[in-house]
């Protein structure tokens, strides 16, 4: 009688070198997932990706890391081809897909140094639309099947106006709309989709926003827990929501901020 081999569980993380993606990669590896990580780092920051990859391996999991542009359709195909080839050798499935890309243009709409059309479209494509393209390919190629979990990182900027944050704020709103639509269309496939709204967290992406120090301090002063959100807080939440028992949670923007968002300024 032929034995049935359970497929290995994989997580595909866009933005997997540090911050939310890096912390989640390590947490999911600890929980038993192999990690396919996509990141875009120059020589000055690539050590972050290498350290995260080494941490995954130290936890006894497989790590496939790609230092590439996740918004490039040809690159997306190459990464998924590599995963498909790995699954052909050793049965596997992408149980978790996390979109944590923070490559955008934080500029004002009005004034001398204002955002231009190319910058606006790039921000929305990388931080918003790319979620849909990766999700479609994962499901249509059979790499993610019933039980799959999709997570996209958003922020309070998706519903609020923040100085110099306009293009990114709009991209976050786009991302949340895409999550709702994916939740609707992927429900028959048994795949859930949720946005994770992190509290203000000290990450490389935050530091690129003009006035980031004030945002961070304001969040610290108003958080009921007396501290800011950390990448590990987000990683713990995603690991929890990746559980099979979360199958009825979909189409939401879930706050993971220690209550930061509920406090009136």
Task: Characterise this structure.
It is a single chain. This protein is of the alpha/beta class. The chain has one domain: Rossmann fold (3-Layer(aba) Sandwich), CATH 3.40.50.720. 43% of the residues lie in helices and 16% in strands. A 7-stranded parallel beta sheet has the order 3-2-1-4-5-6-7, with helices on both faces.
Record the SSE blueprint.
Blueprint: E1 8-14, H1 19-30, E2 34-39, H2 46-58, E3 63-67, H3 73-89, E4 92-99, H4 117-140, E5 149-154, H5 166-186, E6 192-198, H6 204-207, H7 212-222, H8 231-241, E7 253-256
Parallel strand pairs: 1-2, 1-4, 2-3, 4-5, 5-6, 6-7
Helix pairs in contact: 1-2, 1-8, 3-4, 4-5
Quick overview of this protein structure:
By secondary structure, this protein is of the alpha/beta class.
Radius of gyration: 18 Å
- What is the domain total for the residues? 1
- How many DSSP E strands? 7
Give the assembly state of these chains. Answer: single chain
Q: Which CATH first-tier class would you pick?
A: Alpha Beta
Low-confidence sequence ranges? none
Spatial strand sequence of the major β-sheet? 3-2-1-4-5-6-7
Helix-strand string: EHEHEHEHEHEHHHE
Mean pLDDT: 94
Distance between the termini: 66 Å
CATH architecture identity? 3-Layer(aba) Sandwich
Shape: globular
CATH domain topology: Rossmann fold
Query: Structural class of the helix and strand makeup?
Result: alpha/beta
The count of helical stretches stands at: 8
Largest sheet: 7 strands, parallel
Q: Considering the protein shown, what is the CATH homologous superfamily?
A: NAD(P)-binding Rossmann-like Domain
């Amino acid at each position: 009688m032929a034995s049935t081999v359970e497929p290995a569980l994989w997580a595909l993380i866009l933005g997997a070198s540090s911050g939310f993606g890096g912390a989640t990669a390590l947490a999911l590896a600890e929980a038993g997932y192999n990690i396919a990580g996509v990141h875009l780092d120059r020589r000055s920051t690539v050590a972050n990706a290498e350290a995260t990859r080494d941490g995954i391996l130290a936890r006894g999991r497989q790590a496939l890391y790609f230092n590439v542009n996740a918004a490039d359709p040809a690159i997306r195909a190459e990464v998924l081809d590599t995963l498909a080839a790995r699954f052909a050798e050793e049965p596997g499935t992408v149980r978790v897909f996390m979109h944590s890309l923070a490559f955008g243009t934080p500029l004002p709409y009005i004034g001398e140094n204002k955002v231009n059309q190319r910058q606006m479209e790039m921000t929305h494509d990388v931080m918003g639309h790319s979620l849909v393209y990766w999700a479609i390919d994962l499901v249509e190629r059979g790499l993610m099947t019933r039980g799959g979990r999709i997570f996209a990182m958003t922020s309070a900027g998706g519903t609020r106006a923040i100085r110099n944050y306009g293009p990114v704020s709009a991209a976050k709103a786009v991302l949340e709309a895409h999550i709702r639509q994916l939740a609707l269309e992927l429900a028959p496939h048994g795949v859930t989709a949720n946005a994770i709204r992190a509290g203000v967290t000290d990450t490389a992406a935050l530091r690129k926003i003009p006035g980031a120090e004030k945002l961070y301090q304001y969040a610290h002063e108003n958080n009921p827990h007396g501290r800011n959100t950390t990448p590990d807080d987000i990683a713990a939440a995603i690991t929890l929501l990746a559980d099979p028992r979360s199958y009825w949670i979909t189409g939401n923007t879930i706050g993971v901020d220690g209550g930061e968002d509920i406090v009136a300024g």
